[in-house]
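Hi support team,

I submitted a single chain yesterday and got back a structure, but I'm not sure I'm reading the token output correctly. Could someone confirm the output below corresponds to the sequence I sent? I've pasted both exactly as they appear in my results page.

Thanks,
R.
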Amino acid sequence: MDTVAVLLEAPERLVLSRLDLTPPGEEDIVVDVEWSGISTGTERLLWSGRMPPFPGMGYPLVPGYESVGRVASAGAASKRRVGERVFVPGAKCFGPVRGLFGGAASRLVVPGARAVPIDEALGEDGVLMALAGTAQHAIAAELPELIIGHGVLGRLVARLVVAAGGTPTVWENNPARADGAMGYQVVAPENDARRDYRSICDVSGDSGLLDTLVQRLAPGGEIVLAGFYSAPLSFSFPPAFMREARFRVAAEWREPDLIAVRDLLDAGRLSLEGLITHRRDATAAPDAYRTAFNDPACLKMILDWRACS
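Hi R., thanks for writing in. Yes, this is the structure output for that exact sequence:
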């Protein structure tokens, strides 16, 4: 059994390639992928060659951790059933080719426990489950009052805060990304005079922002680092000392975060609509990746694998 996959042969060298798949076991399922998303954070770093040392790093690799598809076959111990639509957060099923994170392919072999059943009505929006789970993970300890960045992750953080009863402010420097607010306000940093935020969530990935954010904290306030940073982070100590600032790093989602997001979606308290702005057939993957990384109007690019076999 094989698959057609996006293959990063080396930095900035991306092709579609047919790869052999690891045979499935009793606990595994085979998923025919319908759509996969392109991450403008970690995948951009993989594509550009700027990814910091990371477990499993190396080329060639299959990127992607945002895939939605149907279960084509299910092992006896997989606890999944044929025909289910599932979200798959990547795979490691390509033999000697690394899966980092291995979701951008027409067919995947994954443990059934790793695939999350999702509502049929979600359709292509299901690729956003990973980002929504990451957003949920970032705010689980405390609802942020200020969110930095109004890309897809920032919008999801804001929507989740609103769903939890909060009224956040979002900073965004790019006027083209200032629209689309749902129950919160988006402002340019220079138009925000407030300096007593109890919790700030940064999803920008900008490693040079910490001093600016510390200046906006209330005493004892917290800055949550929820982006992915390719450069070292640093800050001036005296202002942080005066405010007794706290810093927390929020890692990627965990299973309870995905379940919480799914429950909010099922209850109609969270919407994923309007976040996917660009779509390409999977055969146009090289162009799709360039657009996702270079077009500021592109919030989220997805690949459609349904005609690819």
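A quick pointer for reading it: The chain has a mean pLDDT of 95. Let us know if anything else looks off.

Best,
Support desk
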